[in-house]
Design brief:
It contains ten helices and twelve strands. It starts with 10 loop residues before the first helix and ends with a helix. It is an alpha+beta fold and about 400 residues long. Strands 10-11-1-12 form a four-stranded antiparallel β-sheet. It folds into two domains: about 5-40 and about 220-404, Multidrug efflux transporter AcrB transmembrane domain (Multidrug efflux transporter AcrB transmembrane fold, Up-down Bundle); about 45-215, no CATH class. It is elongated, with a radius of gyration of 32 Å. Helix content is about 55%, strand content about 15%.
Length: about 400
């Protein structure tokens, strides 16, 4: 027979410890603040590629000539007074190499194309979005995808003197591009963009750096993300409370919700005092723990409900709680430990935002197992401190056993 542990003796001490940790987190909120990632504040997102150009295109004439490179073709738009307004499309199914493309461009009056890599396929070309696509006496470079020889560390080293910069690699190997994120003030986005580009140009050479795209996140948009994140969390908790109230009882449901809020506050305390960047990835970890914690709590609540019916000799509610927690203890520990194996592996073998995600999960998993046993159960115990077994149920169950 399994030994029944007296978990109720730890309810008050654990509640006190949790309150101290949460208060510590609230103090940290006002003294240190939350290190918000650029997903939650105004910022700049820029995607860059670093590769030597394959061609240089210039134009010397009275018309306006611009290039538009889209999937499968290059459009040459010619406009201006005294010229025939037209668009010439060069299909890459027919023009397959840079040399062949240059030959077609050079047929346009005033256009001169210098080829640097004649055999490179046209299907992998792109333009620098940071430079106007209108041809002038200034060179317009055409860049090749799939030729990068740098790494994320190289880009990070180029921007090491700037604070608040995060870098993410998109793609693998020679096809890699790099997403650079930087938090900025409402009026400083252009200055930060210029600083980033200047440092990249200095490190890799201006002609070798191509800006794939640049996006600015305004303050109103970042505030909207914060508001939606809070709303999502509140809605999640409310729906969980409704589910638990329908399936169990109001005090069971409220105990489960208190455990969820407890886990969230513990995670936030850890995030605040370690100054971990609070990004959408970390938010995903918080929501993941909410789902994990409620699952562990529901298993315990289901066992409590079962024992309420069949522990006919129980004299007080804590006896039922202790038995239920003892019945589910091994399951709770094994589930948490096996999940921790995978999360710890993520933490050890990854970097960047995934490492933060896994670290937040580690804290949340431990807190979730703890709160399911001690926090939600402590609240339910307090609500049912005057609980008495129902005589009718007690008597009828005894009669059933006697008949058996």
């Amino acid at each position: 027979m399994k030994k029944t542990l007296n978990f109720n003796k730890g309810f008050i001490p654990c509640a006190i410890i949790s309150c101290i940790i949460i208060i510590f987190g609230i103090v940290g909120m006002f003294t240190r603040g939350v290190n918000l990632g650029i997903d939650f504040k105004p910022g700049l997102i820029e995607e860059v590629r670093v590769a030597p150009p394959v061609a240089e295109v210039t134009y010397n004439g009275s018309a306006k000539v611009s290039l538009d490179l889209s999937a499968g073709q290059l459009d040459v738009v010619i406009t201006g007074i005294g010229t025939t307004n037209e668009t010439r499309s060069i299909n890459f199914n027919e023009v397959t190499t840079v040399q062949a493309l240059a030959n077609e461009l050079n047929k346009i009056d005033g256009v001169s194309t210098t080829v640097l890599n004649p055999s490179f396929p046209t299907t992998k070309l792109f333009l620098n979005s940071a430079v106007t696509n209108q041809l002038t006496t200034v060179k317009l470079y055409i860049y090749p995808a799939g030729t990068s020889e740098i790494t994320t560390d190289d880009v990070r080293d180029a921007l090491s003197s700037m604070e608040g910069i995060s870098i993410k690699q998109l793609g693998n190997g020679a096809d890699a591009s790099y997403q650079i994120r930087a938090g900025v003030s409402s009026d400083g986005s252009i200055d930060v963009n210029t600083q980033i580009n200047d440092k990249l140009y200095s490190k890799f050479g201006k002609e070798n750096v191509a800006i794939v795209k640049t996006d600015f996140i305004g303050s109103s948009f970042s505030h909207s993300i914060v508001l939606k994140s809070v709303l999502m969390f509140v809605l999640t908790v409310v729906l969980i409370w409704v589910y638990a109230a329908v399936r169990f009882h109001w005090d069971f449901a409220l105990g489960a919700v208190i455990a969820l809020i407890h886990d969230t506050l513990i995670m936030m305390t850890f995030i605040i005092w370690t100054q971990m960047e609070f990004s959408t990835t970390v938010l995903a970890a918080v929501l993941t723990i909410i789902g994990y914690s409620i699952n562990a709590t529901v298993v315990i609540l289901d066992r409590i409900r079962y024992n309420l019916k069949y522990m006919t000799e129980a004299k007080n509610f804590n006896d039922i709680l202790n038995q239920s927690l003892s019945d589910t203890l091994v399951r709770s520990i094994l589930t948490t430990v096996t999940t921790l194996f995978a999360v710890v592996a993520l933490f050890v073998f990854t970097t960047g935002s995934i490492k933060d995600f896994s670290l937040a999960l580690i804290v949340g998993l431990i807190s979730g197992a703890y709160s399911s046993i001690f926090i939600s159960s402590a609240f339910i115990s307090a609500c049912r401190k005057n609980w008495k077994p129902e005589y009718g149920v007690h008597h009828s169950l005894k009669a059933v056993k006697a008949d058996e």
